[in-house]
């Protein structure tokens, strides 16, 4: 889609009007669903790149022999700080609960976060090792504000870099890109209502941006300490927009970039809720990144509520299910996973030796970078049961699943009510999908208890056989491949052989109380 917020000057009045008419309702719904601040006019026919000549260029890549001053100083970042357990150049950010319009808040894990955006010098060390690819430069046809190969830009953020290259860099450090919720938690300093990382004061001299003085390129990292977060993390607003792993559900294949950049003149573009989106191969002068490293979680602890459910499970009261007019089925009170089991959670089970690796390839999520918060898919029934057993839980029966999705007496057609899906779920009825999405981003599709993705994303295994001795089992909920609203209804049933490892099937666990 180009870089719409930067390229309005290249759009004709007709193009801008057409784009607004086409996407007007979508932007309103998207902003409401995620609390995002998105440009009101999006230009998909950007013909020019923004940015002017930043300085003198050199033919060689920047030297990588001297340690950088940024948050990812060396390619080998294994040295631990005794004080906070984070590698040198990273800051510890304590986890907590992020509400963000949810009935039940997100649980954010404690993590180590790069103190600065990754610099040219640090990225160069990865290139020298043969792990990372060179970003765009002026010589290679990149924009005039690309930093690669420009003398004196060693401690500027590496820019003109695509999402895949950013992920490769983070992975070789044992880290990864943040998702939307993690980035926002870091920038907001927790579950706060601040507009900017430093508070609510307008940017002024808090960031590298063009609102006070027009800039032709990036600034050295950490040059605006007044804009630091409470943890001392630099440039979360301005300098470069930062890649995340979160796909923008309105435009399949586009990913969110957060934080604003040096070219922004509107203070709203630097707010922590402001977002851009682009395809993963986008390489603009305003794009950069930083890495995070999620810290090993402590031993499981009970929920802070009195309900007795483990963290990230919610209580669902029992009752009698009369969904199909048959003899009522008694449903016990239980704890239910808020989210479909993620790749990250399943990987922990594999590392312990309690779970088998899923199938790979195609639309399977296992082994695909940036999918840590996607639901695990391509797993058979036995693997799903093994995971739940390792958590002292189990798969739900088909009747239990329907009870959870429909509320008491399965009174609604969908988890959110009786009206057909639109932007409430990750499905292909409105926008064609090619894979799963990150769990839990569709607030309007949550059940009354706050349980996410009961419709769409992946269909979910149950423990109920399709029939006596058939070898197949009931799956519920519809998936990212679903195109018809009826496929997402609470009572819709599908069947799969227990050994099936389909890319549209995952699972969640329940625990008896």
Automatic annotation (TrEMBL):
Residues 59-85 are annotated as: Disordered. It comes from the Bacteria. SUPFAM superfamilies: C-type lectin-like. Residues 112-293, 329-511 form the Sulfatase-modifying factor enzyme-like domain. GO terms for molecular function: formylglycine-generating oxidase activity. Transmembrane segments: none annotated. Coiled coil: none annotated. PANTHER family: FORMYLGLYCINE-GENERATING ENZYME, SULFATASE MODIFYING FACTOR 1, 2. This is Sulfatase-modifying factor enzyme-like domain-containing protein. It comes from Polyangium fumosum.
């Amino acid at each position: 889609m180009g870089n719409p917020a930067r390229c309005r000057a290249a759009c004709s009045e007709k193009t801008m009007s057409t784009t607004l008419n086409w996407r007007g309702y979508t932007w309103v719904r998207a902003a409401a669903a995620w609390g995002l601040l998105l440009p009101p006019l999006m230009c998909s026919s950007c013909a020019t790149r923004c940015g002017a000549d930043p300085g003198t260029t050199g033919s060689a890549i920047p030297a990588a022999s001297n340690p950088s001053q940024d948050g990812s100083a060396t390619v080998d970042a294994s040295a631990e700080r005794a004080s906070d357990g984070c590698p040198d150049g990273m800051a510890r950010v304590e986890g907590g609960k992020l509400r963000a319009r949810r009935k039940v808040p997100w649980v954010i894990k404690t993590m180590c976060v790069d103190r600065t955006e990754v610099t040219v010098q640090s990225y160069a060390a990865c290139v020298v090792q043969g792990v990372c690819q060179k970003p765009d430069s002026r010589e290679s046809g990149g924009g005039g504000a690309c930093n690669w190969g420009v003398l004196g830009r060693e401690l500027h953020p590496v820019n003109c870099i695509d999402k895949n290259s950013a992920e490769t860099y983070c992975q070789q450090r044992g880290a990864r890109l943040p998702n939307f919720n993690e980035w926002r938690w870091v920038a907001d300093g927790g579950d706060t209502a601040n507009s900017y990382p430093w508070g609510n004061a307008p940017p002024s001299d808090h960031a590298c941006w063009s609102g006070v003085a027009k800039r032709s390129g990036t600034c050295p990292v950490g040059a605006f300490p007044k804009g630091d977060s409470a943890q001392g993390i630099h440039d979360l607003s301005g300098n470069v927009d930062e890649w995340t792993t979160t796909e923008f559900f309105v435009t399949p294949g586009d990913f969110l970039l957060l934080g604003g950049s040096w070219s922004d003149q509107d203070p709203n573009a630097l707010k922590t809720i402001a977002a851009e989106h682009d395809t993963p191969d986008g390489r603009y002068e305003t794009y950069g990144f930083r890495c995070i490293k999620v810290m090993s979680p402590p031993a499981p602890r009970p929920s802070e509520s009195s309900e007795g459910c483990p963290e990230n499970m919610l209580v669902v009261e029992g009752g009698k299910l009369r969904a199909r007019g048959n003899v009522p089925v008694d449903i016990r009170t239980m704890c239910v996973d808020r989210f479909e089991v993620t790749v990250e959670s399943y990987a922990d089970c594999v590392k312990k030796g309690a779970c088998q690796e899923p199938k790979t390839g195609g639309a399977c999520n296992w082994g695909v970078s940036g999918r840590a918060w996607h639901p695990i898919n391509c797993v058979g029934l036995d693997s799903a049961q093994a995971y739940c057993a390792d958590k002292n839980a189990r798969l739900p029966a088909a009747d239990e699943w329907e009870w959870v999705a429909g509320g008491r007496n399965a009174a609604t057609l969908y988890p959110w009510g009786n009206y057909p899906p639109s932007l409430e779920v990750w499905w292909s009825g409105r926008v064609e999908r090619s894979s799963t999405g990150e769990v839990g981003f569709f607030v309007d599709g949550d059940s009354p208890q706050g349980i996410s993705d009961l419709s769409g994303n992946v269909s979910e295994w149950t423990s109920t056989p399709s029939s006596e001795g058939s070898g197949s089992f009931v799956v519920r909920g519809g998936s990212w491949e679903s195109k018809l609203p009826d496929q997402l209804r609470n009572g819709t049933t599908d069947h799969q052989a227990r050994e099936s490892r389909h890319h549209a099937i995952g699972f969640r666990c329940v625990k008896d109380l």
